[in-house]
Amino acid sequence: MKKIFVVFALLVYASASYAEYRWIRDTLYVPLRSGMGNSFRILDKGLISGTRLTLIEITEDANDSWAKVKTEEGVEGWVRAQYLIDTPTAAQKLATANSRIAKLEKQNGELRDNLSGKSSSNKTLNAELKAAQKQAKELAKELSELKRISGESISLYENHQKLMETHQLVQTQLDILKADNERLRGNNDQQFILAGAAAVLLGVALTWLIPKIFNRRKKYSEWG
Question: What is the pTM (predicted TM-score) of this model?
Fold first, then answer.
């Protein structure tokens, strides 16, 4: 039973998927009857031109052909096949075309507006890009200048360090020379004092000896 239901559902789905349509001609109002013939009850007397109907079946009688159809509301009935056409009416095609044209024009307008906005946005982005590139060049120039100044500062610092080392060495040598000078000055003073003392002692000795010598000579002359 379940398999039969599935097969039936598939058949209904296939039938709905491949439904064939017909449209009322754009000439008059066509009545929808309950059977094939003018004597059958009218279900809908106002199927206007352009009404889309789902074709269920159609008779093959060339003189008096009828078609069984279903309306959009689900009402089934019969109409004369001569009032049906295979495609929408010219008015419907025109309306559809106008609708599509209006839709396309709207889309075209939206695209133009979008393109205009993007163009303006692109101009802004290009201006921002140029400004950023200019700023990048200026920053690169400043960086190069900073590197040069840094290099000169490092060189000056190294030269200063060398000068400080040389100054320290000279100061040390100067301190040594000062110490040697002080030592030599002390030695000279001592030598001067010693020379003075020797001169004094020599003077004292001479003062004592000379009279002695003259007195002795005098005695010898008196004896002779």
Answer: 0.36
